[in-house]
Amino acid sequence: MSTTEAGRSTAEARKAAILGKAVPVFALKGYHATPVTEIADAAGISQAYVFRLFGSKLGLFTATLERCFGLIEQALREGAEKAPGAPSAQVLAAMGDAYAALVADRDLLMLQVHAQSATDVPEIRDCMRRGYAASVTLVHELSGGTRDQVQYFMAMGLMCHLITALELDGVDDPWALTLVNGMTVHGRRAE
Q1: What confidence score (pLDDT) does residue 1 get?
Q2: How far apart are CA 22 and CA 45, in angstroms?
Q3: In this structure, what CATH number is given to the domain that contains residue 75?
Q4: For 22, what's the count of Cα atoms within 13 Å in the CB-facing half-sphere?
Q5: Three-state SS for 166?
Q6: Contacts for 72 with CB less than 8 Å, ≥ 6 apart
Q7: Which ranges of the chain have pLDDT less than 50?
Q8: Is residue 190, in this structure, part of any structural domain at all?
Q9: Residue 120: domain span
Q10: Residue 55: inside a domain, yes or no?
């Protein structure tokens, strides 16, 4: 491996490590309220090095979102693999369970929630659109579902966001039980 390749390899590994640290930091306060110094401190590096690798706070945030959507893609694929040859509805259910297990990691979920609240920033809005476009396309391809089935699947994913963000699986009130009914939350199906 050449010195240049080794440098790129090290920079890519460092980027991945920084993105792993950025998820929980951005998840706590979102894009607008999170200084890059907090992410640099969490990663144990200088703020200048973060800027060197990502160019700006916006570059870091969108790269963190792209990592999140990559994890979503991986979860959807793994879910679909659990239902080979099954009807669309079963494939979608398996993919939904895999997604619910993924967003049981509250940091990933809250990163998405904060990103949605920062779509006034065109680059974040565009990144979110690309991520959702890729997710919807992948769900169609892997499940063979109809447009209506995929729309329902995506709507239930957003319901999963609401249930997890508000911790509704622990609320024993009729309105909360209505929303949680039949949903997979934290790896278990609510009744």
Answers
A1: 45
A2: 12
A3: 1.10.357.10
A4: 28
A5: coil
A6: 99, 102, 131, 135
A7: 1-3
A8: no
A9: 11-180
A10: yes
Token duo for residue 169: 């699986």
Q: Which of 63, 64, 74, 69 is nearest to 23 (CA)?
A: 64
Q: Total domain count for the chain?
A: 1
In a domain, 169, yes or no: yes
3-state helix, strand, coil in the chain (%, to 5): 80, 0, 20
Q: pTM for the complete prediction? A: 0.88
CA distance 161 to 104: 9
Six-digit token string for 182: 């039949």
Residue 3 lies in a domain: no
111-132 pLDDT, tens per residue? 999 999 999 999 999 999 999 9
Token pair for 23 = 């998820």
Taking alpha carbons only, the member of 113, 18, 117 closest to residue 63 is 18
Which run of H or E residues covers position 184?
strand 184-185
For 22, which DSSP code? H
How far, in Å, CA of 173 to CA of 179, rounded? Answer: 10
